[in-house]
Structures are given as structure tokens and as C-alpha cells.
Amino acid sequence: MILVTGATGHVGRPLVDLLLEAGVGVRALTRDPARARLPQGVEVARTQDLPMEGIDSVFFVLAAFPEGPAELIERAKQHGVRRIVALSSYTARDDDPKNFIAVRHRDLERRIEESGLEWTFLHPAGGLAVTALEWCEQIRTTGVARGPFARAHSAPLHERDIAEIGARALLTDELLGTRPLFSGPESITYADRARIIGEAIGKPVRFEEITHDEARKEMGDVGIPPGAIEARLTMFAQLVDRPHEISPVERYLGTPGRTFARWAADHAADFR
């Protein structure tokens, strides 16, 4: 049986479906099982209970355990868990001690690697397409998407592609002991993202560039930690007018990555 943490999240939810399709048992952790709405056949449990009995492999998401993986690792070793596949970050390759996001993910990887368990660390690069959902209310009510860097490039990943690579790491030994790096299939600006969403919903969407201070306030208002805010602003600034490097998912999945236009079409209802 495979334990999926963050099972109702953007990556965890499609991963649950993929594992069920593969015919394996799934125990899904969520903060509120009564509201999880997961498919029939999934064993649902509370994240804080952390039930490990009968688990062979774990998909770990740091967002579900903001205090880190220490307790999960200890419970996993007590119950004979064999493997942890962690959704990490390409920033873990950055050894800058001032990069808050990098430091957190390097620590995550170090703790799991030192546990002696089998591991794979997923390194999505180029940004997650789902971050555009931050614009839902703005686009629905004003037709405008606000952000600090209109010309900053990214190569946004569809969450389904991340889930498919996670499933491969859980179900096969092909990615064992590796840190697969992968991005979306195209480099686009944040202004492009707004335009593409508009095309998907059938009405113009304009990107409105805001100041750094305005961006800090808006990100802080939704609970992003100050260190993460500064790391994001620094990263965005470095990507202005600079096309993002593409690391194709084909090398892991054998098929091209899903475009941002595909993501926008899949999520059009969220913006209407």
C-alpha cells in the first residue's frame, strides 16, 4: 500500500487517481477526511494521525508537514516502510544560505537521505501552473491579473505531469536514488499566462504589473512566509526578459509535457 500525503492537493489528488488506475492500494492523508471527496477504494485518514501500518512507500509533500519530515521518517522506519518519494524543488540545487526555499528543501532531502530509506526527490522547475489560481477572483471580477514582473519568464508545469512522474517513482525502480529535474514544455512570461487564460475562458485578461512592495503585501496576506516572499521576488527578477531553460518531461514519461494552454483549458471553470 502507498501512503499519499497532501492527497487533496494539486499534485496529490491526480496522483491518487494514477495509483488507483495502476491497481495498488492507496491510503490518503488529509486534514479533514470528511471533506476529502476521494474516489471509492481509497483509505482516507487524518494527516495528524499518520497511520503507517501496512505501508510500503510514501509520497511526501512538505506543505502537508510544514514542521518537516522527522516524525514521518521515524514512524516509517518503525513500520517497515521501504521508500519515500518527496516532492522537493529544483531550488534545492542552489547552495545559497539566504534562499529560504532552497534551504528548506535541502534540509528535507538531507533528512530523508540520512534515514537509510530508499528515496527519490522530484525537482520540478519552471514553476507550477496552478499558481495562476491565485488570480481566480481578480480575473472573475475585473478581467485583470496582478503581479510584480510582467516580463518574467517561467516554464509552468501541469500538475498532472508532476503526478505521473511521482507515480513512476513509486511504482518502479527507474528513478530510485535520483533527483529528476523537469519543467513545462515552453517558456512564457507572466503576461502570457494572463493572455492564455483569457483565450481559454473566451474573454480578454490583462496583466497589471505591481510594485515589489505591493507584491510583498499581497503574498503576505495569503500566508506566504516572509523568507519565501523574498526568495520568489529575487527569482522573478532574475527571469525578466530571460527565457526559462526547458527540461523536458519526455525523458521520464515518454510523452511531451502539457502546455500552459492545456492547463488553462482544464481549469477554465475556475476563472469564470
Overall morphology = globular
Quote the distance from N terminus to C terminus: 39 Å
Number of helices: 11
Radius of gyration: 19 Å
Q: Determine the fraction of residues in helical runs and give it as a percent range.
A: 25-40%
The count of DSSP E runs of length 2 or more, i.e. the number of strands, is 11
Assess the beta-strand content as a share of residues.
Answer: 15-25%
CATH level 3 topology of the largest domain: Rossmann fold
Please provide the ordered H/E string of secondary-structure elements: EHEEEHEHEHEEHEEHEHHHHH
CATH class descriptor name of the largest domain: Alpha Beta
CATH architecture of the largest domain: 3-Layer(aba) Sandwich
Mean pLDDT: 93
Strand order, main sheet: write it out.
3-2-1-4-5-6-9
Largest sheet: 7 strands, parallel
The CATH superfamily label of the largest domain reads NAD(P)-binding Rossmann-like Domain
| Unreliable runs | none
Total count of domains: 2
